[in-house]
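Team,

Forwarding the record for the chain on the shared tracking sheet. I've put the sequence and predicted structure together so nobody has to dig through attachments.
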Amino acid sequence: MQVAAAQLPAQLQRGLKSLYTVHGDEPLLQQEVADTIRATARAQGYTERTVHTVAGAHFDWSEVLAAGGSLSLFADKQIVEIRIPSGKPGKDGSVALQQLAEAAQDNDSTLTLVLLPRLDKQTKTGAWFGALESFGVTVQVEPVERRALPQWIAQRLGAQGQRVVGGEEGQRTLQFFADRVEGNLLAAHQEIQKLALLYPEGELSFEQVEGAVLNVARYDVFKLSEAVLAGQAARVQRMLDGLKAEGEAEVLVHYALSEDIRALKRVKDAIGQGRPLPMALREQRIWGLKERLYERVLPLLTATDLANLLQAAHQVDGIVKGLKQPDWPTEGWQALQRLALQLCGHCAIAPAKTGGVRK
């Protein structure tokens, strides 16, 4: 069953299903859709969660298949989350996903959540995706077109009890806001949250919006990403300390770091499949300074490096949301520092020491 992202809350109110598939290219919106499903599940007693990231053709699907029937002694219900960053589960994965989809019917103890990037038409006609769609709910996350961004911003402001003034001035304010974030939904989301912290519910003037959006602090999270990819450990440490002191949301810092790790993995996989590097970078919307940083860093990272970094990012995701992870700090900023410096360390390795391009 296909459900639009906007219709998902109503579907969840009618009854939680045991299988959900979320696919799309807009990370912020995909994360919000997945969070909505998880929150609904937790409220209904799904207290345990395991995450499986499909990395490479030799991924062991038997662990995923076994997870559905392995509840711990402390949980009656569980969420089994399967992330497939490449969108290609492979031959074994195709069979496993069909088995999981069929097993999900009337399973009131396990909720399976499958997260995928944007899928092309051919992939959607595959047997594995057809099974996910037939036995569960699929949610396609559509990007917000540039011309629709001012209205999207207005809706988000409305959800937190704020609005711009009416008429032409309000439209000018929304257009200014959209221009400043340059179509970046994460940046827009961050600015909207900032306005909720700075001003009470009610009407916002152009001057208030302008003052908040032009604040240079909004670029810090994205500059942190550049410093990490450049391998500048001392600068990364200073920026993390500054972000913490300014009260930046841990989840946004984690998002910036984990999105770089996911993008590096997707580009590396694309190169392994024969795509030229420039094409792979364009497909992942990597431009400008980041494009040059990715070109330098990618030869330094092995598939194992990226798999370990992905696992680390998933663990830190839980920590910043209040969960404990074995062998990791319990405090969110300490975990973010460890993740940032772990990636930074890989990016700082001099190319001359690698012995050529690593695969």
